[in-house]
């Protein structure tokens, strides 16, 4: 079966996903697209695909079996709710939504629909290095995780896109999600510290040091930078009771010349996570073709939104901001069961 997909938002990542869905992956066909700028959508789609005037018309079209949302965050809620109302599987780029109330509305609608339809674009969970790291932690040979050090550095951000909230709303969500996933834990509190301003751009508050307090008592520190200048640099190291497990450096050609011995650094997320995005969509296509979703869920989108909100409060208060989640609905136990099949059950410490 070939899955007929419509894409909402044909900007930077929308076009990259269209390339992957048309040129890299099989079992899928782009049949429709829409964008605020109709010309941008027309230029992005393959021959024969229909360009719709509105997301709603695309979602309701009989031609479209599943939807990929790549519009900007504040538009996601309305588009997600329309996909759920139409009973169609939907892949939604992060952030799933931009407020706790919106996340709860998505969760309620999905529960009312009776099955999982939403996958959120947390692509790190599909990266082979993160998957090996999770398998080591779950394997338990290093004991319980105590700390996770996450480094998330972006070279720069286009001036028009930067707001003081952007690193916490748009960027931290990846680290929040991967911390919960790697440690099989929930975030219960957030603190944020800011160093002196960088002369790279004195208007920005960047970088941020974020501390995530996990339910088990483990602590995560995250260095978030959207202005590091030298490239896209993602690192991760988990300190456990009996040892440390870290993401490896990405294999890259070693260049020796008059400047020394060095390896290239990825320019941006498209390069660093290219295989992860491919795998993310491979698994999404398989689930969507079966009429459901199995990857990062609306629950994970909700958790990331709460973390971003708490981080913003923590900047203002300078203290620890607590997170309280609703009880996890049964519908969202499915990804945990699948993860245990793939990576082994989460390691639990006797007596804890
Ligand atoms: P972008 O280049 O600005 O593209 C977004 C596109 O969607 C633009 O063409 C925009 O039109 C259009 N759009 C916005 N609201 C719309 C609506 N209501 N209906 C139809 N089209 C709409 O942004 P991007 O970098 O591609 O990011 C898109 C989303 O992906 C964001 O949520 C972002 O956080 C996420 N993202 C995820 C990753 C990842 O690693 N997973 C990486 C990058 C981006 P206008 O420009 O006219 O507003």
UniProtKB/TrEMBL annotation:
It catalyses: myo-inositol + NAD(+) = scyllo-inosose + NADH + H(+). GO terms for biological process: inositol catabolic process. The keyword NAD applies. One of its GO terms (molecular function) is nucleotide binding. Its EC number is 1.1.1.18. Keywords: NAD, Oxidoreductase. InterPro entries: Gfo-Idh-MocA_inositol_DH (IPR050424), Gfo/Idh/MocA-like_OxRdtase_N (IPR000683), GFO_IDH_MocA-like_dom (IPR055170), MI/DCI_dehydrogenase (IPR023794), NAD(P)-bd_dom_sf (IPR036291). Residues 130-244 form the GFO/IDH/MocA-like oxidoreductase domain. The keyword Nucleotide-binding does not apply. It comes from the Bacteria. Residues 4-122 form the Gfo/Idh/MocA-like oxidoreductase N-terminal domain. SUPFAM superfamilies: Glyceraldehyde-3-phosphate dehydrogenase-like, C-terminal domain (SSF55347), NAD(P)-binding Rossmann-fold domains (SSF51735). Involved in the oxidation of myo-inositol (MI) to 2-keto-myo-inositol (2KMI or 2-inosose). HAMAP family: IolG. Homotetramer. Belongs to the Gfo/Idh/MocA family. This is Inositol 2-dehydrogenase.
């Amino acid at each position: 079966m070939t899955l007929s997909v419509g894409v909402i938002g044909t900007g930077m990542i929308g076009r990259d996903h269209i390339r992957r869905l048309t040129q890299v992956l099989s079992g899928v066909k782009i049949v429709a697209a829409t964008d605020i700028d109709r010309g941008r959508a027309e230029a992005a789609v393959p021959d024969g695909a229909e360009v719709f005037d509105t997301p709603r018309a695309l979602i309701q079209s009989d031609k479209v079996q599943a939807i990929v949302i790549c519009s900007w965050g504040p538009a996601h809620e309305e588009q997600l709710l329309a996909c759920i109302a139409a009973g169609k599987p939907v892949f939604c780029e992060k952030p799933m939504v931009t407020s706790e109330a919106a996340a709860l509305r998505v969760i309620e609608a999905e529960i009312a629909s009776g099955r999982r339809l939403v996958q959120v674009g947390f692509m790190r969970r599909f990266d082979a290095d993160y998957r090996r790291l999770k398998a080591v932690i779950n394997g338990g040979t290093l004991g319980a995780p105590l700390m996770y050090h996450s480094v998330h550095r972006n070279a720069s951000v286009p001036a028009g896109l930067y707001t003081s909230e952007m690193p916490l709303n748009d960027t931290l969500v990846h680290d929040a999600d991967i911390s919960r996933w790697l440690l099989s834990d929930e975030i219960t509190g957030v603190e944020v510290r800011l160093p002196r301003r960088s002369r790279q751009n004195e208007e920005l508050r960047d970088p941020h040091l974020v501390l995530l307090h996990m339910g088990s008592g483990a602590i995560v520190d995250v260095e978030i930078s959207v202005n590091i200048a030298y490239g896209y640099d993602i690192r991760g190291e988990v300190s456990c009771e009996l040892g440390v497990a870290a993401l490896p450096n990405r294999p890259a050609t070693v260049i020796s010349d008059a400047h020394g011995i060095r390896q290239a650094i990825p320019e941006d997320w498209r390069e660093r996570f290219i295989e992860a995005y491919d795998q993310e969509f491979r698994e999404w296509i398989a689930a969507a073709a079966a009429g459901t979703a199995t990857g990062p869920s609306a629950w994970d989108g909700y958790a990331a939104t709460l973390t971003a909100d708490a981080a913003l409060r923590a900047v203002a208060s300078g203290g620890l901001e607590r997170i309280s989640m609703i009880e996890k609905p049964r519908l969202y136990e499915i990804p945990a069961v699948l993860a245990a099949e793939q990576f082994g059950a989460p390691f639990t410490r006797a007596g804890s």
